[in-house]
Amino acid sequence: MTLRLEQISHPQIIAALKTFVPSPIRSFVRRRNVESEKVALATARSTDRKLLNETLLPALSRGAGRALWVGCRAYTARYPTIIEACGAECWTTDIDPVAARHGRPGRHVTGDAKQIDALFAGMEFGTVFLNGVFGFGIDDVAGQDECIEGISRILKPGGLLLVGWNHDAVQDPERLPAMQKSFVRAAVPGCETRVRYDDVTHVYDVFRRAG
Length: 211
Ligand SMILES: C[S@@+](CC[C@H](N)C(=O)[O-])C[C@H]1O[C@@H](n2cnc3c(N)ncnc32)[C@H](O)[C@@H]1O
Description:
The protein has 211 residues and is an alpha/beta fold. It has two domains: 8-43; 46-209, Rossmann fold (3-Layer(aba) Sandwich), CATH 3.40.50.150. 38% of the residues lie in helices and 22% in strands. The chain is built from seven helices and eight strands, in the order αααβαββαβαβαβββ. Strands 1, 2, 3, 4, 5, 6, 7 and 8 form an eight-stranded mixed β-sheet that branches. Strand 4, helix 6 and strand 5 (155-166) form a beta-alpha-beta unit. The structure holds S-adenosylmethionine.
């Protein structure tokens, strides 16, 4: 008898995995999953994340028209809903194909944010959220400059850019040539233009595309 793949049930797959994958490997994978869930939960509850969720996301999404969230993890999966509740059409992107599952269904593009203008060619955004990507994948100054240059090309004039970064990991993004050329600090009601913390190294900067 030949068994087609779609005829195999989920419990049968689990039983097969238990038979063929040795117990120490299964325990290791389980521990890794629990650890990453703990990290995700801690991240989601941190003070800086609270400001992002409750203040920055809504304030910078209102009137954006179209907004882009860069870098998708499990704990960012509900951000498109927050952004869209404020009236913006949300798009998401990440270099990691696996991250697509945490992005906006139907409006996610997989690719390198250093080529963000090619990924979103012909599209214009009112706000770009770039949080935790510098120092977590785009690590060198040249790459960061390329990314900001690309963002300046897909942001409409006057469009907003949130950069979340860690002062112990990367240089101040305000010093990047592309930032100096195309952006100024933004005064958005209810948001400080730069937020720093005593207990964590995270910094939020809000910029506006000049011109
Ligand atoms: C530390 S996580 C930050 C996730 C999220 N933006 C946040 O607010 O926490 C870094 C994310 O950036 C993504 N990333 C790293 N390098 C990238 C690149 N060159 N282009 C696009 N995404 C990148 C990673 O895959 C990962 O999902």
